[in-house]
Design a protein that fits this description.
By secondary structure, the chain is α/β, with parallel strands linked by helices. It has nine helices and four strands; from the N terminus they run αααααβαβαβαβα. The protein binds guanosine-5'-diphosphate and magnesium ion (MG). Magnesium ion binds next to helix 6. This is SRP54-type proteins GTP-binding domain-containing protein.
Length: 219
Amino acid sequence: MALFRKTLRKLSQGLSRTKQRFVGSLRSLLAGRQINEELLDELEAVLIQADIGIASTGRIIADLQAAYTQKRIAKGDEVIEFLKAELKKYWPPSDRAVHFADTGPTVVLVAGVNGSGKTTSVAKLAWLFKQQGKKVVLAAADTFRAAAVEQLSIWADRIGVDIVKGSGSDPGAVVFDACDAAKARGADVLLVDTAGRLHTQDNLMRELTKIRNVVARKV
Ligand SMILES: Nc1nc2c(ncn2[C@@H]2O[C@H](COP(=O)(O)OP(=O)(O)O)[C@@H](O)[C@H]2O)c(=O)[nH]1
Ligand SMILES: [Mg+2]
């Protein structure tokens, strides 16, 4: 356990260093410089190296280029604030809002890679919806690690919401039971926590499809 914690701490420190390095290299690239084609090329390289993705990087650079051509922005130091505002515009508030189902519980399935904050996000959403007076049920469908169920249970206790846990290793079965529980208890929202996975892991991606199908049949 101690070794596990140590490894986890190292990983988390490593990730935070990656973030600092990315933000640090952005700032040192931009500091005190005027925007020009050369700087935009260098910025493009930094964004791609930081795994922003080719499509998103292309869009960001095109937006910056337009702003620079129209003289809305001139200094490198203004770029980070500009990018923050621009990125927010990519997702208008209507897209960012949760869409609630007309009837029955609204089901939110949280999926993503390991350690990306799924369980924490489920807890945050549970807290938010509870504050809004909604009845919330959690489904502990990360059956991969025993500690994952425990982590979500602690959040459920702290927030004061119901949680459905399974006894086996089938997340579909947990979600099946959770849908029944959510309906029986008249829940407004069912939040489903899942195990971490990469989009390249076909079997695990199929498992997500199975979970979604269970929800579609039950709710
Ligand atoms: N600073 C910060 N840490 C977070 C945030 N969300 C999650 N974490 C931390 O990141 C780690 C992994 O989060 P977790 O929710 O367990 O990720 P999961 O594996 O996707 O379920 C935990 O140590 C969390 O406390 C966040 O928004 N900000
Ligand atoms: Mg988790």
